[in-house]
Amino acid sequence: MKRSYLTATATAAAAALVLTACGGGDDQGEGGQDGASGAVTVSLAGWSLDTTPEFQVLADAFHEQNPDVTIDLVEYSADDYDTQMIADLSAGSAPDLYVMKNLKNFFTYEDGGQLVDVSDVAGQLGDEVSGVDAYTVDGATFAIPYRQDAWYLYYNKDLFDQAGVDYPDGSWTWDDYADAAEELTTGLDESNVYGTYQHEWQSTVQGFANAQSPGADLLSGQWDYMVPFYERAVDLQDEGTQLDYGSITTNSVSYQSQFGTQKTAMMVMGSWYVATLLAQVDSGEADEFAWGFAPAPQLDSSTVEEPITFADPTGIGINPAADDDVVAAAKEFLAFIGSEDAASALAEIGITPAVTNDTVAETYFGIDGMPTDGVSRFAFSTHDVRPENPVDANTAALQNILEDAHSAIMSGSVSPADGIDEAEQRAAAEVLG
Amino acid sequence: MVTTAVPPTGSTSSRTGRNRPGGHPPGRRLRLRNTFIGWTFILPNFIGFAVLTLGPVLALFYLGFTSWNAFGQAEWVGVENFRGLLTDATFHRALLNTGYYAVLHIPLTLAASLGLALLLNTKLRGVAFFRTVAFFPYITSIVAIAVVWNMLFSPDAGVINQFLTFLGVDDPPGWTTSTDWSMPAVVIVGTWRYMGYYMLLFLAGLQAIPPELYEAARVDGANAIQRFWNVTVPGLRPTTFFITVMLTIESFKVFDLILVMTNGGPGISTLVLSQYIYRKGFEEHDFGYASSVAIVLFGICIVVTVVQFLINKRRER
Description:
The complex is a heterodimer.
Chain A: H1 2-23, H2 26-29, E1 32-33, E2 40-47, H3 54-65, E3 69-76, H4 81-91, E4 97-100, H5 106-111, H6 119-124, E5 136-137, E6 140-141, E7 144-148, E8 151-156, H7 157-163, H8 174-187, E9 194-197, H9 203-212, H10 227-238, H11 245-250, H12 255-260, E10 264-270, H13 272-283, E11 291-295, E12 308-310, E13 313-318, H14 324-337, H15 340-348, H16 358-365, H17 374-381, E14 384-386, H18 395-410, H19 416-432
Parallel strand pairs in A: 2-3, 9-10, 12-14
Antiparallel strand pairs in A: 1-2, 4-13, 5-6, 7-13, 8-10, 8-11
Helix pairs in contact in A: 3-15, 7-8, 15-16, 18-19
Chain B: H1 10-17, H2 26-63, E1 66-67, E2 75-76, H3 80-87, H4 89-119, H5 127-139, H6 142-153, H7 159-166, H8 182-207, H9 211-219, H10 224-235, H11 237-252, H12 256-261, H13 273-283, H14 287-316
Antiparallel strand pairs in B: 1-2
Helix pairs in contact in B: 1-2, 4-8, 4-11, 5-8, 8-11, 11-14, 13-14
């Protein structure tokens, strides 16, 4: 008989575990009033909280100004963020506030009715906040950006000196860039360093092609304008000026180690790398060397006054399942993340905020180890950032087709013209047809 | 464990209970309790299976006929998704690639695992060690496998191509960076990964063949090859059948290996069905269409398995 009791207890324990596991998610989504003092707790989704301090920085800075409101962070996986968030929203267990990691999935959230209209908050923001337009659909705004990255050209000043090549001066076109890459490769031949490095992502080619080509429209499915960008990239790797695509994918090469340990003199990369490089120099993962960043190369010299670059904004929206008082507090938080105070707090940890005025730039370039030359400052504060992903139902499918084209072209399996042609046909038949 | 919970007198009383239809048979209570205990043992697993596997699978057959982006109500669209599949060239390519993988992977793995099993069924010194070594890939993290094999396959600096060049091959293949060779590369890794597992099943099968049969064959003057074809192969038939069915299903639903090794590339040269389902569902949020592809994959698996069972049944006669 004793054993029957054991069985029963075990069954009960197992059942209890299952039940609590299912119910556990529920209390995440419910912020609300703590006691009668009017204090409100609002939950905010973030990813990899240990290595991504920006969420805590925003939460702390806001709480300091608004002691009544506490922002509680809920951790998600960085890689599966959108998949997990969609599942949680669908199940009604998502946090009150959640981050739009990029614009690729913003459409899914907005179209699915998973974002509160925050046009009133957007109306109060200053003109300096960049990226708000990306979250505006039919005149209504559904998220507020706190961060606006941009792609730059990173360069290693020591290696440029060694090769006797002039630093980028902010007026480079892609042809100037290719010429410099060749010169650097020749000049640095003995030390086995490449002139430039282009990471395996489709963004490194297509992002610029979409942003800079006149009349370019990702959603049109007509992508001939990408061909010259691909021809340049393929030429650079064929002549050994940059590490070839196959070596990058098969050896899982990380761009951080390529630039950080001086295996390349230049690299186009997003502004997020600034904070990473500073941290890696500190920890010893990266060498200590003189470096800087310049505006991304341009299609022609007509845009060097305000160089065109790209990157999606990072914004925060409100879960419609939140209670009214939580929504009110959440809106205060959203108004705060678009402010100069929030921008300065983010700039202190090397994040490129959505507001990049002089005060914020002062904070940003005050970080220990940050390059302080005029070109880097110009690249940080003066640019025309185009979103990488247009907000549309077809964006994700078209980007997937283009990703296939990218790997086919860069691996040398097809010529740039044929690869783009195939992609156009697939887009017409499978997505736009 | 179950029977120990039953008092020893139980078995006798249940036997007598059956002879007393009218009264209140103590046997019925006992049987009920035994059933209950049995259920409590399988219930935790069954609940998990029902909630996490059976439910979603059943939902799939509904979702395949809808348009759904994970939010709100799924909209019924009838056979629209399946009509789309008929003209979807990428789906056709994924179907073809999946078949290509299966056709290469099944015989290769079958041969490799049988070969290994025969080799390691002898009284070799350190045979346990080699058996463990052969089983290792199966329990190694797929991500680590992909990283290491990709490095081995690296077209210029990789060990494999350096070895091929050493052997005098002038133009070694580009492996995972070439649209022609990426699928063979993935098949090689797939075979290497799974052969240890199936070797273990073959080993069990080999040990179930009575040694008297070999003895008799030897007495009749059969040589090693004749003994293999006339004793080993027929003796292994149930094992071979089981392994073929498992291998077929495993080949059709290959996913993680491709995802981490090539992500379907270069281009769509290694895009397989389950990866296409993942893309359509979790990347493009078109869960209805993804479900319809999953139904097709399910259908293929069922048909192939039934055909295999029929063939096996005919051979048994």
